[in-house]
Automatic annotation (TrEMBL), chains A, B:
EC number assigned by the record: 7.2.1.3
Pfam families: Cytochrom_B561
Membrane-spanning intervals of the chain: 60-85, 105-125, 137-160, 172-199, 211-231, 257-278
Assembly: Homodimer.
Name listed for the protein in its UniProt record: Lysosomal membrane ascorbate-dependent ferrireductase CYB561A3
General function of this protein: Transmembrane reductase that uses ascorbate as an electron donor in the cytoplasm and transfers electrons across membranes to reduce iron cations Fe(3+) into Fe(2+) in the lumen of the late endosome and lysosome. Reduced iron can then be extruded from the late endosome and lysosome to the cytoplasm by divalent metal-specific transporters. It is therefore most probably involved in endosomal and lysosomal cellular iron homeostasis.
The organism of origin for this protein: Parambassis ranga
Gene3D superfamilies, sorted: 1.20.120.1770
Membrane-topology annotation of the record: Multi-pass membrane protein
Length: 303, 303
């Protein structure tokens, strides 16, 4: 899930390499970039300074968005953990409601927060001057961790349902959630084979890239829809107001406010990730469609 | 909500005008475009044919996506109408459950289907050769219709709740849904003032455009999340299996299958709309960031 835009026009001819175009990359300094950018084709030197300024501004805005993304990540994980430990009684693995509590925690942490952060990894300008291979491996590793947490999160709810003889996979929430996890598993295996194995041919990478990108975005949107419908469903289940001391959902007790706020935070996180992924200027330069050689990673990355 | 990509590189220098770049536009024929595209800067005439072919392919793929978008639109509206008329008893405006039935029908039709179709209006290549003003007016008119249907849909559920003395706006579904409608109303008013009034200055349009685009995408995603959580909630409410002859949701009776399928169709529709909006090649050429003069519409459009 490295880029969102496909089939765009070629890049500006004014910057010939990563270090020319991205002054905050470790390959270069801002002063050197100021001299290099635009010097090849432009005959209007007075225009260089605004170009550099706009690039610097773009990078500053990126880091603000990325900071927001990290803050929302922490807020989502803290919220879902506090909700399930403080209001839902904590955690266990015994088929009880305490085992169910792992489900929201692991799905939000894995399928949303880790997944979203792994997706935007290539966008961090400080990584652009480095060999791409370690970042590809980190992307694959964080995605694998996200996938494992999601699968354990599904096991938690299946065990809980089975212990209560409740059927699985009947609600729209479960359909959306299982589709997200199944597509994620498929995406990881195909991504691993297609983009990390040295034997993967160029034409296959070229064919896979747009599918990988769009499947990645689709999975993120499925995850967010599953989380929002799941939180809504859970709050209606547990806040019925018919047992002593429990206020109904409609009275908006503190637990309902926390759950609703978690949903809002998850949505905001998804929107920030989508914003980071869709901005062409924030793509790693050698991952842009017009720059990709599509040679096997283990050959191209270590040159 | 005319485009998704912002801040990209300048366009390829090989096509100097709309009619050069888009051979299926009424301004031009494929043969004329074949001669025109790339002729200004390229000194390799043998490369012209593949460029034209790739543009033709892009337009064919657009129309396939657009056809899918239209089919999903019809399927969503048919599904939600059949669900509420066949399984939920039909429609009325008397504070009863029959009044509530207007809510899903109007929200899906207005906030999802009409909204999504109005958003992709500018992408239809057959409109590119025409004056943009009528399409802007159509975009604004369909969005207004979508907004009115959404507001009436909200009135339906508020009336129903008030008649039963049920509180409003406490669930996560309602928070997401009201945020979508409120932002939509704000977006329409600001869009009308910013892009359709002749007195709106250039700098304001330039400032508004990326906000309009991102707010538009955010509203679509909010609408889809609201629909999926709402369908899920409604099916749990009505399919409890405790009244004679009604199977529980967990037994997946035909109504549950239809409701779940409606959720899947709405998600698929949203993904297709997002795909159409995010492809740079499918943007109306004079709406692309690098081509926009940002002069007041009523002046620029009628030149």
């Amino acid at each position: 899930m490295q880029q969102m835009r496909q089939g765009g026009p070629p890049p500006s001819p004014s910057c010939s390499s990563t270090s020319d175009c991205f002054p905050l990359s470790p390959l270069n300094t801002a002063a050197a970039a100021a001299a290099a950018c635009g010097s090849e084709t432009s005959d209007e030197p007075q225009k260089h300074e605004p170009t550099l300024l706009s690039r610097m501004r773009s990078i500053v805005i990126f880091y603000l968005c990325y900071l927001l993304c990290l803050c929302l990540s922490v807020a989502c994980v803290v919220c879902v953990c506090v909700w399930n430990s403080r209001w839902r009684g904590g955690f266990a693995w015994d088929g009880s409601a305490l085992q169910f509590n792992w489900h929201p925690v692991l799905m939000v942490t894995g399928l949303v927060v880790l997944y979203g952060n792994a997706a935007v990894l290539y966008r961090i300008p400080l990584t652009w001057g480095h060999n791409k291979l370690p970042w590809k491996l980190l992307h694959a590793a964080v995605m694998l961790l996200a996938l494992i947490l999601s699968i354990v999160g599904l096991c938690a709810v299946f065990d809980f349902h089975n212990a209560k003889s409740t059927p699985n996979l009947y609600s729209l929430h479960s359909w959306i959630g299982i589709a997200a996890t199944a597509l994620f598993a498929m995406q990881w295996v195909v991504g691993m084979g297609g983009f990390l194995l040295p034997c993967s041919p160029m034409y296959l990478r070229k064919l896979l890239k747009p599918v990988h990108v769009w499947m990645g975005i689709g999975i993120l949107l499925l995850s967010i829809a599953a989380c929002i419908s799941g939180i809504n469903e859970k709050l209606f289940f547990v806040l019925k107001g018919n047992s002593g001391g429990v206020q109904p959902y409609s009275a908006l007790p503190p637990e309902a406010l926390l759950g609703n706020s978690l949903g809002v935070l998850i949505f905001a996180f998804g929107l920030v990730v989508l914003k980071i992924l869709s901005n062409y200027e924030w793509q790693r330069p050698d991952s842009r469609p017009e720059d990709m050689a599509y040679t096997p990673v283990l050959q191209e990355e270590n040159e």
